[in-house]
Amino acid sequence: MALKMHSAVQIVGACMLWTSVSSIRYLPNWNSLDTRPIPSWYDDVKIGMYIHWGVFSVPSTYYGEWFWYEWQTSKYKECVQFMNKNYKPDFTYADFAPQLTAEFFDPNQWADLFKAAGVGYTAFVAKHHEGFCNWPSKYSFNWNSMDVGPKRDLLGDLAAAIRARTNIRFGIYHSLFEWYNPLYLEDKMNNYTTQKFVESKVMPEMYEVVNKYKPEYIFSDGDWEADDTYWNSTEFIAWLYNDSPVKDTVVTNDRWGNNSRCIHGGVYACDDKMNPGHLIKRKWENAMTIDKQWAGFRRNAPLSDYLTIEELLAILAETVSCGGNILINIGITHDGLIVPIFEERLRQMGAWLDVNGESIYATRPWSNQNDTLTSGVWYTSKKQGSGLSVYAIIQNWPTGQTLTLGAPVTTSNTVVSLLGYPNTFRWLPASPVGGIVIQMPYIPVSRMPCQWAWVFKFQNLAN
């Protein structure tokens, strides 16, 4: 068990959050590590930026970031046919690496775009399952971004730009396993009774990346073929929480072994695109993609494979309403560009947050997540002064002269407003026991506060 905690902790929205820095020391076991509250910054910022970039960005076609695996296993004929048609027979995956040129990579531009989008933290792919490190790791000879391809420290350059130009918390994604690393395959053949890969590769590079770049968010992945004892996960996390340079602010997830997902660790990421649709006991994260199919950039993706802004905002509203954070992924081209479709979605989201961010940032789940009468409505709440403000995020603007919601219970002092609109709204109780009928005035298009997903604010409700 953990030692006595000396800092105050509060329970908010079904998850534990820091209220001050703790002097606790955690032991390298789940009983102790699971007691660590999640630093409160994470629950306040709500939105993260997930960035997939690697050697897979060169073929940038079928199966995205999983291209190498799908090609080698021949599970899907598209990859094999693509290689047979376009590359010589002896071409290897490693031959793609010099083509990861990154000549258009401008970390300052990225940082400015992420700031404009309204995100609060990043998860930049430091290393995916292909094993290629986007920093000059001492433990990845000739398979990192300094030795081959870009010939620069991609991770370090982005970290520096974000910290210099924004208040965004810099974080990383890191895969524990590597598909074709011979040391890993040897451990796997030995039924994980040996740990050559962990001891000589994974753990040294993880300590290296934390000490050098000080990420405040670590999205661990690639854990599913072995349990946490093989990965030495609890030892690393105990160091991370106790002695690392980010010990007081770092947030982790739950992907530390095939026995830890949705059970142990920090934030529950469970599976990709996690979206339970209701409150759960632990803080959780929806790691999702604007490209509906894959995280890595795909040159051949049709427009229909990308989320519309309406779809993106609907996922954002549902996720935050149910107590989660949303981690929004974009894929990067081999030459370091964020393509216009991703930039457009991020800027559209930022414009929406400029008007409606009050309903997202630093909010907590309300007594109801979605409405009891009207579909496409999700609620959030926030303490303001001595009262509680409740926000109803509606996906469809009412076609008639009224909007009826079942969840709010009004009082004689209830005030209804629309974020970004100057006037309050008239209303009537929907019934003696609850609900509200909002009188909808005519609002010219030129005076509408935003184009999508409008937010009604309620003050002085009974619930």
Automatic annotation (TrEMBL):
A Pfam family annotated for this UniProt entry: Alpha_L_fucos
GO annotation (BP), single: glycoside catabolic process
Keywords from the named record: Glycoprotein, Glycosidase, Hydrolase, Signal
Domain of life: Eukaryota
GO cellular component terms, semicolon-separated: lysosome
EC top class, as a word: hydrolase
Enzyme nomenclature, EC number: 3.2.1.51
GO molecular function ontology, one term from the record: alpha-L-fucosidase activity
Reactions mediated catalytically: a neolactoside IV(2)-alpha-Fuc-nLc4Cer(d18:1(4E)) + H2O = a neolactoside nLc4Cer(d18:1(4E)) + L-fucose; a neolactoside IV(2)-alpha-Fuc-nLc4Cer(d18:0) + H2O = a neolactoside nLc4Cer(d18:0) + L-fucose
Alpha-L-fucosidase C-terminal domain mapped to chain residues: 369-458
SMART domains: Alpha_L_fucos
Signal sequence extent: 1-23
Ranges for domain Glycoside hydrolase family 29 N-terminal: 22-358
Family under the similarity heading: Belongs to the glycosyl hydrolase 29 family.
Subunit and interaction comment: Homotetramer.
Free-text function comment from the UniProt entry: Alpha-L-fucosidase is responsible for hydrolyzing the alpha-1,6-linked fucose joined to the reducing-end N-acetylglucosamine of the carbohydrate moieties of glycoproteins.
Name this protein carries in UniProt: alpha-L-fucosidase
Source organism phylogeny: Eukaryota, Metazoa, Spiralia, Lophotrochozoa, Mollusca
